[in-house]
Amino acid sequence: MKNCFLLCVVSLGLASGQVTVLQDVDLIDGTGAAPRKGVSIVISGGRVRDIGPSSQIKPPSGANVVPLAGKTVMPGIMNLHGHIGLVKGLTQARENYTRDNIDAHLRMYASYGVTTVVSMGSDIEPELMLRVRDEQRGGRLSGARVFFAGRGFTAQNGYPAVLPGNKGVPYEVSTAAQARAYVDQMAKMKVDLIKMWVDDELGRYAKLAPEIYTAIIDQAHKHKLKAAAHLFYLADAKRLLDAGLDAMAHSVRDEYVDGDLIAKLKKNNATAIATLTREQSVFVYADGPAWLDTPFFQRGVSPETLATLKSDAYRNKVAGNPDAPKFRTFFETASRNLKKLQDAGVRIGFGTDTGPPGRIQGFFEHWEMELMVQAGLTPMQVIQTASKNAAEYLGVSKDFGTLEKGKVADLIVLDKNPLDDIRNTRTIHTVYLGGQKFQ
Ligand SMILES: [Zn+2]
Description:
Layout (H helix, E strand, L loop, with lengths): L1 H10 L7 E9 L8 E9 L2 E7 L10 E4 L4 E4 L1 E6 L4 E2 L2 E2 L6 H13 L2 E6 L6 H12 L7 E4 L4 E3 L15 E3 L2 H13 L4 E6 L11 H13 L3 E6 L2 H9 L4 E2 L10 H9 L3 E3 L2 H8 L11 H4 L4 H8 L1 H8 L4 H20 L3 E3 L13 H12 L4 H16 L16 E4 L13 E6 L2 E2 L2
Parallel strand pairs: 1-4, 1-5, 6-9, 9-10, 11-12, 13-14, 14-15, 15-16, 16-17
Antiparallel strand pairs: 1-2, 2-3, 5-18, 7-8, 18-19, 19-20
Helix pairs in contact: 4-5, 6-7, 8-12
Bound molecules: zinc ion.
């Protein structure tokens, strides 16, 4: 840890005043602008100091010039829906929530180019995540940047509190007054947003009542915090938006979205996050997906986890889940809804719901991008969801999201251009986090 501390401090590159120039890259800046060839990016103090045609940018003397002709640079991926620290291997448990495990997850995300992650309501010790975030903002950055919701909200005996390892993760609330008091506690903990679950998990469990989630959203807004909801049903999405919801943390999956929902999303300037890999995770391991055998996937899991995921016992367990066939349909519905919302001009945010068992941090973010393209978005649109749109939703676009002069230099250098094939986001050459090489 001592070494890590030194490395972390050095990796800031602030004290050294070092200047790095990434020279002659093909640039996708995240704004949606056409890609530009032969671009140089001048980085110092963790930020983009200059960016433009290499012919016009003279590297300052003493700069570390990195020739990258033929490589593509895109913004670091901002994941608006992740979970951190509760899982080791394929097991979720409260005792896993330690500083070491949190750091390991943040390093894993960053090594895959996921430079920002929003921890969505499963921070059982919010003060621990607050400390991580404050240290990062103070300059000690050893993995993906964290935004966090602290503990989220659900009904008494509601989803997901009833799942293994989830007791005590969300607040289980039964009155509006109680909900408001807990939101106050989270606000005191300086969370970045408020998260709630409004889902009966296919009719099995209690669902947060409208009067309670209305109070949660209202109290969040009193603290100038955005409110995001795990939801499933179209009818709930509409009621939540009427109550002021700022983000759908998953797709509507029971029905196709309609003009009424689109109007409500736009009225709230709300963000829609699809989490297509989340649906896939319910059934995909029954199919023995080809990516299990790729080095890009395998570098993110332990040999034991890989062996389990590939075992007949695990495949049979997933295949035997009576919900699995339903989730194949939910996935199709979610994909179609994503395309419809994108075409309607709703802000699409990028999110995966990685972190719970089997939803592999790092790899799934890249697979999510592939599934979004399969749903009908262009690679350029998908990259925008994970950069510009994500930063706008978080209210941090002054500093993050796109690669422009003055902004933080969180970026990925790729061997191949993802506009040709979105799977090229997996050809990671280097990740820069706060202007320093992460790997
Ligand atoms: Zn989640």
